[in-house]
Amino acid sequence: MRTATKTSKSNPIGKDLFKLCKKMFPICRSITGDGVRKTLAILQKYIDLDIHEIQSGTQVFDWTIPKEWNIKDAWIKDAKGNKIINFKDNNLHLLNYSVPVHGKIDLATLKDHLYTLPDQPDLIPYRTSYYKKNWGFCLTHHQYEQLEEGTYEVFIDSSLEAGSLTYGEFFIPGKKEEEILFSAHICHPSLANDNLSGISILTHLAQELQKQKNTFSYRFIFIPGTIGSITWLAQNKDQLSKIKGGLVASLLGDSGDFTYKKSRRGNTEMDVVVQHVLEKSKVEHRVIDFIPYGYDERQFCAPAFDLAVGNLTRSQFGEYPEYHTSGDNLDLIQARYLEASYQVYQNIISTFEKNIFYRNRFPNCEPQLGKRGLYDAIGGNSNSKMMQMAMLWILNLSDGEHSLLHIAKKSGYKYALVKKVAKILLGKGLLERV
Ligand code: ZN
Q1: CA 432 to the chain's CA centroid
Q2: Distance CA 272, CA 411 (A)
Q3: Which helix (H) or strand (E) covers residue 397, if one does?
Q4: How far does the centroid of ligand 1 lie from the alpha carbon of residue 70, in Å?
Q5: Beta strand 309-313 with 258-261: parallel, antiparallel or unpaired?
Q6: In this structure, are residues 270 and 277 in contact, taking their beta carbons and an 8 Å threshold?
Q7: Which 3 state secondary structure label does DSSP give 106?
Q8: Ligand 1 center from residue 309 Cα (angstroms)
Q9: Is the model's pLDDT at 293 over the cut of 70?
């Protein structure tokens, strides 16, 4: 039985988006292991995800898929045998990817393996050690300050063995082979905004989209951060030319204003559409240029691929106080923010779907307009000068890649005017629909 997405007013989708975040929250995820599988199994109740398992040791470009990590239990006991730190209370207490350990150590040795946030003494930090063998615990700075001299017993019941990296993929074929790619990372343990919010929104979007007839094809991938996108790109490197645009979804449930980080090229159709939707939705937002730091857009925008993939979040990556701490919990995200984010993503899709693309049938220099009666066709209009200029813009940019919306933005002319002129050019046989 699949869980249905509801969009009616009496049952707003915000509640459903939050419910899915809540369901996934307790699971201890990592870049590999059963936490990822359990999470994807939950998503399979909503959409028919394909699950891919790529073996440890597989070479993916310059990286190697690491051994699979799984965790059963972890704690620290004081000299009296009291569990003072317990993974079962909060899975952030464990340094993610810790190797197994069991033994008695003194406080000084223990402290070499402890991580805290002295500036945020009530919060537990989220720390990982994927590619360097290590073990450790994360705790609040208050807990740390209460540690007394003495012997401590540490226990981490983890395994790091040959296995696989798991990711989920869902494809919805459309009329065109060209694809829009949506990606969310699924490797964080109990953190809500980063990134359960993105997973929940993409899952519900996919569920809605599959019910419709779409012009574009849509691909949703749920992958561990960095190594997951590198793996996916390595597996699909021959298919990437189909990707028309994409978004990395994360940080979508907090109260922050929207942040759009442009693709590396910065002027792709996706960049134009997202900025248009944010302006039209009248939501507070900022647009920033691409930087090679952040989420998986780093990999999608690697120089070899340079895909038209941006990153649309609310708060900016790393810029809110609860980021990568126990403060990024279910209290930080709210149904209404998730819902507003969902609507922006939905508007981006519907704008893409409505976009009109033409190809200039006479791209070898400017076609001769006079002999086709084009000056006469627009001559009687009060804004004929503007229409003439719009005509030149449309002819120059109609290469199948720039939509009419894109041409309107770039030329500075109103969309209605550009559409009207395009219709005239179409009538004269200068354009063809792509
Ligand atoms: Zn993160």
Answers
A1: 34
A2: 13
A3: helix 384-397
A4: 19
A5: antiparallel
A6: no
A7: strand
A8: 18
A9: yes
Peptide bond into 195 cis (omega under 30): yes
Encode 214-251: b = buried (16+ Cβ within 10 Å), e = exposed: bebbbbbbbbbbbbbbbbbbbeeeeeeeebbbbbbbbb
Residue with tokens 């939707």: 277
Whole-number Å distance, alpha carbon 344 to ligand 1 midpoint, is 22
pLDDT bin (cut points 50, 70, 90) of residue 357 is very high
Cα of 144 from ligand 1 centre, angstroms:
24
pLDDT > 90: percent of the chain: 92
Residue 252 CA, ligand 1 centroid: distance in Å: 13
Amino acid code (one letter) for 40: L
Contact 249, 297 (CB under 8 A): no
Distance 109 CA to ligand 1 centre (A): 28
How far does residue 192's CA lie from ligand 1's centre (Å)? 10
Q: Which two tokens stand for residue 417?
A: 């005017």
| CA 189–ligand 1 middle distance (angstroms) | 10
**What domains does the chain contain, in order, with CATH numbers?**
13-66+164-354 (3.40.630.10), 68-161 (3.50.30.90), 357-433 (1.10.10.10)
Separation of CA 188 and ligand 1 centre (Å): 7
Which residues are bridge partners to 75 per DSSP? Answer: 86, 155
How many of the other CB atoms lie within 10 Å of CB of 175? 11
* Residue 100 CA, ligand 1 centroid: distance in Å: 24
Is a pLDDT exceeding 90 seen at residue 126? yes
C-alpha–C-alpha distance, residues 203 and 169, integer Å: 11
Task: Give residue 11's pLDDT band: very low, low, confident or very high (50, 70, 90).
Answer: low
CA 220, 222, 227, 232 dihedral sign is negative
Q: Is 0.85 surpassed by the pTM of this model?
A: yes
**Ligand 1 centre from 294 Cα, in Å?**
9
Q: How far apart are CA 179 and CA 275, in angstroms?
A: 20
DSSP H/E element including 286: strand 285-288
